[in-house]
Write a structure and sequence with these properties.
Elements (H helix, E strand, L loop, with lengths): L2 H11 L5 H11 L3 H20 L3 H6 L6 E5 L2 H10 L5 E6 L5 E2 L16 E5 L7 E7 L8 E2 L1 H6 L1 H11 L14
Antiparallel strand pairs: 1-4, 2-5, 3-4, 5-6
Length: 180
């Protein structure tokens, strides 16, 4: 029994369940050889996918069941992904990624494990404190802009740049001033 599963059972039932207790319960519930084989196959599959989840190169090829979060470095990539989701657009999040890897970028997609987007991949989730802003996009900005006050205080240049970008200002817009 995996430590993660054991902790989940402890949280849910507020008691410790050791390996022998778990196996005894499985033996009582799974009486046919076919049922036991199915559980065994599932556990082998789970073990393989858990080990595979940390492989960055294969995450780029197929993101299903991987442990990486992919974040865009370019706003236009984010807008494209927002429009690929459900009708009505999607949400754009501004994140502070501190422990990510820059995924190789090649517009020709000829390098191994490359991507056609400019992105940073982070293993595991992004802590909520590092989500510093968000807004909804559906062919145009479609909601208020939500930005953390601490983002403005800690990263004023990045804050101003993202505020202008989420407001629809581009380098071609009147009144636009580049960051820095």
């Amino acid at each position: 029994m995996s430590p993660c599963y054991r902790r989940a059972l402890e949280r849910r039932y507020r008691r410790t369940i050791d390996k022998e207790t778990f196996l005894a319960a499985v033996d009582r519930q799974l009486v046919s050889p076919q049922a036991k084989e199915l559980v065994y196959e599932y556990l082998v599959w789970l073990s393989i996918t858990k080990k595979e989840s940390a492989h960055l190169g294969r995450m780029v090829e197929n993101q299903a069941l991987k442990g990486w979060i992919s974040t865009a470095r370019a706003l236009d990539s984010s807008l494209t992904f927002a429009m690929m989701g459900p009708p009505g657009g999607g949400w754009i999040y501004i994140t502070m990624v501190h422990s990510g890897y820059v995924v190789p970028y090649d517009h020709r997609q000829e390098i191994e494990w490359g991507t056609a987007e400019s992105e940073i991949a982070q293993f595991g989730s992004i802590p909520k404190e590092r989500i510093v802003g968000f807004a909804k996009y559906c062919y145009a900005w479609d909601s208020p802009i939500f930005l953390r006050k601490t983002f403005r205080e800690r990263e004023p240049k990045a804050f101003e740049y993202m505020h202008k970008a989420l407001s629809g200002m581009t380098p071609a817009s009147p009144g636009y001033t580049p960051p820095g």
